[in-house]
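Researcher: Next sequence.
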Amino acid sequence: MKELSRVASAVQASTTVAIDSKAKQMKADGIDVVGFGAGEPDFNTPDNINMEAIRAICDGKTKYTPPAGIIPLRKAICNRLKLDCDLDYDYTQIVVASGAKHCVYVTFRALLNPGDEVIVPAPYWVSYSEMIKMAGGVPVLVVAGEEQGFKATGEQIKAAITDKTKCVIINNPSNPTGALYSKKELQEIADICVENDLYIISDEIYYQLIYDNAEFVSIASLGKDVYDHTIIINGVSKSYAMTGWRIGYVAASKEIAKIMSNYLSHSTGAPSTISQWASIEALNGPQEGIEAMRQEFEKRRNYMVKRMNEIPGVSCRMPEGAFYVMMNISQLLGKTIGGATINSADDFAMAFLDQGLVAVVPSTGFGIDNFVRWSYATSMENIEEGLNRLEKFLNQ
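Model: Next structure:
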């Protein structure tokens, strides 16, 4: 048989999916596993959004749409960006795709030529590095450790720039760390990118899940030059508990949007028509559900962080956004727990799942060592039980 694609063969499986899949298989086998792996709200999609989808089906809104999405949805996105981020976009600058993940991939496809470098602050969302390579690019990691709040500095990014650098990607607030960049920190990064004529990909999918009355700032709002260099990634999945509806969007220049639309027209086409009509209701309809969900996440975060920092051997910082906590396991390295030697985050995650019956995600897939990610997008009951099991596991 002839050789398969080297690019496709080199793609690594997602660590978040791998841990979550094993945990679900254990549950299917009757094992009482508590999962903190995959990141999606545990709330149901609001009824007004569900009813709009049903109405769309009944009204026959089930045909193909333009590759970039229906115009009413793209206009609703423009309206939401104006209301929430004070950003002005025309609907011709908006491209809708099958989730924010798909939007990131299509953005890399639109921007990158073979060998182009993308600066990626680490810890990073697990798929960034693989998608860059899938698009022919080269990820250049800039490690931003816990001591600096898991946020890359402008100086770090400046030091990583070469004549091959095409763009910088930031996730604000961040998966996996929950870190939130301040306006000052964003301005520092933006100035360097504009000065070096680099595109800025700003993944803002968690922008409405911010805590402690902190302010979210979209980097594209920091001036016309920054706006012109920025591609915003967002969607309805996290804020409206619509992960399975698969609607994400890109806001960019008209030129980039047109290239993306053309790319989509020959690859996937537009996402589900029904989901598009439902997303209009999500964006234009009542927004109170977001705040109720955000408040519940904040309560869970506070409990998880406090309790985790009371357990000897582990620690964590307080995340400012999203719904993740990065637990530091450095003190456990080299130790044996329940017969398993912990030399890495992978060792810890596997031993904790096998013996403690708790699924967390090792940080190796995020480009940093010695941490595991917990998601608090689960019930308080599960959080309490998971931390009880952590304490018991570490006391073996």
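Model: The chain has 14 helices and 15 strands. The chain has a mean pLDDT of 96.
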